[in-house]
Design goal:
- The structure is a single chain.
- By secondary structure, the protein is an alpha/beta fold.
- Helices cover 35% and strands 15% of the residues.
- The strands form 7 sheets. It has an 8-stranded mixed beta sheet, with helices on both faces. Strands 6-5-4-1-2-3-14 form a 7-stranded parallel beta sheet, with helices on one face. Strands 7-26-25 form a 3-stranded antiparallel beta sheet.
- β25 and β26 form a beta hairpin.
- It is globular, with a radius of gyration of 26 Å.
- The relative contact order is 0.15.
Length: 822
């Protein structure tokens, strides 16, 4: 792989009292990838995590993961790279469901991820455990939702991507779903679940009744909402302009091939950047070609002006080698990146500067490199533990938590912990209000969001969805991302809006006053920008010493790239994902903002960990996160490297899946995904379809058999044989798909300019929680006067700020006209 392994200090865990989640106990009864990732991240942050090894018979019905691990064990090495990553820093203990239910009383958090019926059968549902363990925070990560036709299907990454619509968003040369070569959506699901666990802990301490645990449901569809939210808007009053599925789409956001046959990605997302790129190329003339006519809206539509400009630039890029283009665009401050392979990324100075990989010793494999924790908490740094190589038996007395290390820690802290019930400051018998409803867990948390584009704003949006009061601060001209107004709607639908010109001293002073009452400050300013505005770290710390500050960047601590702009596909290109997805064909970059959404979710996780730590220490801290580190995290198992490591999966153009039993197939009236990942299930699939299992072209024979069957009949037949399968939702069908509707995948929001739109709804369900702000389209300065009044400004002072345009308020909405860009 490469040598971009972090410094030696990353190889040791901090002392218990310096970790963000010091003293937190997590019981992980997982059978899916998401549950395993969630537990790993909490362990990295200092929680004591015990994974209950429930046994193959209990995992097989809930996930295809057991088949994957069995295949790895039979491969000769007996090791699955994924498990080396997932289980670091955990204890793994053989337990029965009854053991889990009993031991949950000694935990702060229980992570479960079974399907609904399976969870109930195991006796591990939140309603079952709440009476016996009222302080427990119950985190349920069902693969496909709480209800609906496909809720009981075994978890599989290909099936989740198909059902959520993610597979339909990958570039293809015909209208088919595309299988991802790495389960980015499942890894994101785990990170979102870990964040929800910490939010539940914060809510247990902050929201009435104090000391009573929260229950939360974070399904795979909630993770899909985070990853796909910017691509799922559907207009009811007018259409939404969306990107073309081909990788060679709109000219400002696509791959080009240089004179030396190397590929690069031009990431000039907004007009200002694209015009800089054209100027650097000396090709501003393309803007006035017939059919383009100087109209940016025509360039956004590939079939109109977009194709004309793209074809001109394709020929232009063929005139110089890749290195010259990269130097040219770097000088012009235009995001652009070469298509690299994973080993180049692992060995890069960017990975090394961010300590994105670390090394652990395995008794049989020797040195193993793997991704480090993907965010930098400066006050309570994460430190991943050692590789777990043993499975313990539960002690005969059932005392899961009563280890010598635990007893020593409890004695030092004077906790007097009991193994059967976690001691907490419960009040009044911890009853719920008479109606069973309580505030959402982040109620009372104030967030000031100064960030732009997507990664930063989505942090605040998820926090608002979970109860925080989030103020979106943007300049009078607006967030540059408003070139895509519906994406801004999705990323800010539960926020309040304030418009400030912080280049004016009066505007900067308003921001400081807001931070005085804030808990979290999110920004993505380039280095030095805040200092030049008079908003230095020291001045902010004087205003609010215990503030948690989240700084989002493209390249993180890679100082040589500190001023370089970067968007999501830049890191798909650099990290090797585009090369792996394309296989032996052209590189394939998905238009799904996978790195942006991962950075947001990991930022959420880190920010909540810092806020939880502040509750114990009273100290704020700075959190650094980057798209670069997120790109490594999303491909976590692919960056686990050791001698003799199994080969990585590689895709292809129109990649339908890795095998005949594990791929997408077209039926007479739609697509489905099937996950027959064992020999027995594959034989059953062939028998069902009347196909000879030994035919050399098995996938083609299965495809021919499915092609004449109606989708519903095919899915019913597969279900009757117990073969995991689900529909693959195409185009905008997600708003009408019954299973997605049953799980509240989208809801209706009205924009004053463009009308009604269906957009993603939520990032997790808090069954007993209420208080989420109503969803709406937040205009620039929508709530300026209200927010300034809350901050203590008089009406006269507000008028003065508005008169000098240090602050502005929303203008009346424009009359509906052109179709909005997504």
């Amino acid at each position: 792989m490469g040598s971009g392994v972090g410094d030696s200090e990353l190889n040791s865990r901090p002392s218990g009292d310096t970790a963000a989640l010091a003293g937190v106990r997590v019981l992980e009864a997982s059978v899916t990838r998401a549950g395993r990732v969630a537990g790993m991240l909490l362990a990295d942050l200092g929680a004591e995590v015990v994974r209950a090894e429930l046994g193959p018979s209990l995992g097989a019905d809930g996930s295809t993961l057991s088949a994957e691990l069995a295949a790895a064990a039979a491969s000769g090495r007996g090791v699955c790279p994924d498990e080396l990553w997932w289980d670091r820093g955990k204890r793994v203990v053989r337990m029965s469901p009854a053991d889990v239910a009993r031991s949950a009383g000694g935990a702060d958090v229980l992570i479960v991820d079974q399907t609904p019926a399976r969870l109930a059968a195991l006796g591990l549902a939140a309603t079952t455990l709440a009476a016996a363990h009222p302080a427990l925070c119950h985190v349920w990560l069902p693969p496909y939702g709480e209800r609906g036709e496909w809720a009981e299907v075994a978890e599989d990454p290909l099936l989740l991507a198909g059902l959520s619509g993610a597979a339909a968003r990958y570039p293809a040369t015909w209208d088919c779903p595309v299988a991802s070569v790495t389960p980015t959506l499942n890894h994101l699901h785990g990170a979102l679940g870990a964040a929800a666990a910490i939010a539940a802990l914060i809510g247990r301490d902050r929201t009435a009744p104090a000391g009573r645990g929260h229950a939360v449901v974070v399904s795979g569809l909630a993770a899909a909402s985070a990853q796909l939210g910017m691509m799922t808007q559907v207009g009811h009053d007018q259409p939404v302009v969306k990107g073309y599925r081909s990788g060679r789409s709109v000219p400002y956001w696509r791959i080009y091939q240089a004179a030396d046959d190397r590929w690069l990605f031009l990431a000039a997302l907004v007009p200002e950047i694209f015009f800089r790129a054209l100027d650097a190329m000396d090709r501003m003339d393309v803007l006035v070609l017939p059919g383009v006519d100087g109209d940016w809206n025509k360039i956004q539509i590939f079939e109109h002006g977009g194709r004309i400009v793209a074809e001109e630039l394709e020929a232009e890029f063929r005139k110089r080698p890749m290195r010259e283009w990269l130097e040219l665009f770097a000088a012009a401050d235009v995001p652009c990146a070469p298509i690299s392979i994973r080993s180049e990324w692992a060995a890069s100075d960017i990975v090394a500067a961010n300590h994105a990989l670390l090394q652990r010793e395995h008794p049989a494999l020797g040195p193993v490199s793997m991704p480090a924790f993907p965010a930098d908490l400066t006050g309570t740094p994460a430190a991943p533990g050692e590789i777990t190589t043993t499975v313990e038996d539960l002690p005969a007395d059932g005392a899961l938590w009563r280890t010598p290390a635990r007893e020593a820690a409890d004695a030092t802290a004077g906790a007097g912990a009991q193994d059967d019930e976690r001691p907490l400051p419960l009040k009044d018998g911890h009853p719920l209000p008479p109606n069973g409803i309580r505030p959402l867990p982040l109620t009372g948390i104030r967030v000031v969001d100064l960030s732009s584009f997507l990664a930063g704003p989505l942090i605040g949006e998820i926090m608002a969805d979970w109860g925080a009061d989030v103020i979106k601060v943007e300049p009078p001209t607006g967030d540059p991302f408003r070139a895509f107004p519906l994406s801004v709607l999705v990323a800010s639908q539960h926020k309040r809006g304030l418009s400030l010109d912080i280049t004016q001293p009066a505007g900067a002073q308003v921001l400081l006053r807001l931070l005085r009452d804030a808990d979290l400050f999110v920004e993505n300013m380039r280095p030095g920008r805040m200092d030049r505005l008079g908003l230095s770290d020291e001045r902010i710390a004087q205003v609010r010493p215990d503030l948690v500050r989240c700084s989002v960047s493209a390249y993180g601590h890679a100082s040589g790239y500190a001023d370089a702009p970067g968007f999501d596909p830049v890191f798909q290109a650099l990290s090797g994902l585009a090369d792996a997805q394309g296989g032996d064909g052209d590189p394939v970059l998905t238009p799904i903002p996978i790195n942006d959404s991962a950075t947001a979710t990991l930022g959420l996780l880190g920010a909540l960990a810092a806020l939880y730590a502040r509750g114990r220490t009273g100290a704020g801290q700075r959190l650094h996160l980057s798209l670069a580190n997120s790109a490594t995290f999303l491909q976590g198992p692919d960056f686990v490297d050791f001698p003799g490591r199994p080969a990585h999966l590689r895709g292809a153009t129109n990649f339908l899946g890795p095998s005949a039993g594990h791929r997408y197939y077209q039926c007479a009236d739609g697509w489905l995904g099937v996950a027959a990942r064992t020999e027995a299930r594959l034989a059953d699939l062939a028998d069902l379809l009347g196909v000879d299992r030994g035919t050399p072209e098995l996938a083609n024979a299965i495809a021919a058999a499915f092609a004449t069957r109606p989708l519903a009949d095919a899915l019913a037949a597969l279900a009757s044989r117990g073969i995991p399968a689900a529909p693959a939702v195409m185009d905008d069908d997600h708003i009408n798909e019954p299973h997605l509707a049953a799980n509240g995948y989208t809801h209706l929001v009205t924009d004053p300019e463009f009308g009604r739109f269906s957009v993603v709804h939520s990032y997790g369900v808090w069954p007993d929680g209420t208080g989420r702000p109503p969803a709406r389209s937040v205009q620039i300065g929508h709530d300026t006067r209200e927010i300034l009044t809350e901050a203590g400004y008089t009406a006269a002072e507000i008028d003065a700020l508005l008169a000098t345009r240090a602050a502005t308020q929303a203008a009346p909405a424009a009359t509906a006209g052109k179709a909005p860009a997504g």
